[in-house]
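Q: Fold this one first, please.
A: Sequence and structure below.
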Amino acid sequence: MRGVGGVLIMALALAGCAQGAEPTGSTVRFALDWTPNTNHTGLYVALSEGYFEDAGIDVEVLPYNETQPDQLIDAGNAEFGVSFHDASVLAQAGGADVISVMAPLQHRATAIGVRADDDTITRPRDLDGKTYAGFGAPYEQPALSQVIKNDGGKGDFETVTLGTSAYEALYSGKVDFTIPFLAWEGIEAEHNGTPMKYFQYTDFGFPDAYAIVIDANRDWLQKHPKQARAFVGALQKGYVFAADEPAAAARILVEANRGTFADKKLVQESQAELSSNYLKADDGTVGTQTLEQWSGYADFLVENGILTDGDGTTITERPDWSTYFTNDYLSK
């Protein structure tokens, strides 16, 4: 699901998209962060149920490739796309012309995962001296180290960067821990007979984060405010449907991406988990963001020297996080 052809989708080749004329305000290019999965259900609901069409918006879904959505958005090759809380902060701190306009998943959807049958690891401090299978992001090691320290450990462990091979390495016993998406790799592990046990970051004093956010091109938003509100409102409506009707939403996702999901039960269980625990904020809203939640994790990134500006200089002064996101384009 990584930072996981359909109904009414016009999928463009990225090269052609980069070379084509800039779209009109009624045309929106949306960049995926990975192949279709339950993080994207709201998008496919909005497409299949005609929410974008009703709003007068033509949507072109850009298939995932090696270029991160924030790069495409910053370059003007997409108007919106799926990002992550930390990835969005890093991009904006580095000068990217993006801003978060919506948070589909209200809480951190990953956890520290170890094999369920590993009796040597019962809590984060037991991870000292172990081997972590990671994904190469600069914030992984500091965050994991802090969780271990918060549990009374030293925060020292070995790291190997394996990408999506991390899960197989954990199952086979070649590494000791990784960070799965609970509603995808976690369920997949259960289905494969290799269950995991988890340590939640927030259970050990680490700030919560939005698992995924929707980033947009700031310049396009300013030039097309009416169309931006129409698009974000329709997308939000799709995620509201997914939150309220998980079974129907899962069916729509599968139908819109025929041949993508070999394990349809996984999709159904994943959507049920997200709908129950992630899609709605404490006040029942969908997609909203708060300064408190943005600040907690973003402050950690500053304090640990992870953020750099456009010149590559480490950022030591706390930015104004309220400029990194907006709720202005959401339906009230």
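Q: Good. Now the second chain.
A: Here it is, same layout.
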Amino acid sequence: MKTPTLDRYFDEAGRLKEWPSRHRRALQIAALHWLVGKFDAAEVYHERAVSEIIKRWHTFDDHALLRREMIDLGLLARDPLGTEYRVVTSS
């Protein structure tokens, strides 16, 4: 059985063009790991900067979904006020 890949979800410019369906959760998670790789783990980001990075790397116009999914999956952490974001790194 062939392992599904994310290839079909990217456009020619390397941007995520489609969010995998909920039945493809493994692909969603793989896409989120790919996307969090676009952030610098040493930086602290404000929400606007997080949104801009996400907008730069996808084309289906739902940066809030992707930001929320990265937070829910524990890839990004948000401070209690929701003003600062950081990449979560394993120690």
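Q: Anything worth noting on the second one?
A: The two ends are 34 Å apart (CA to CA).
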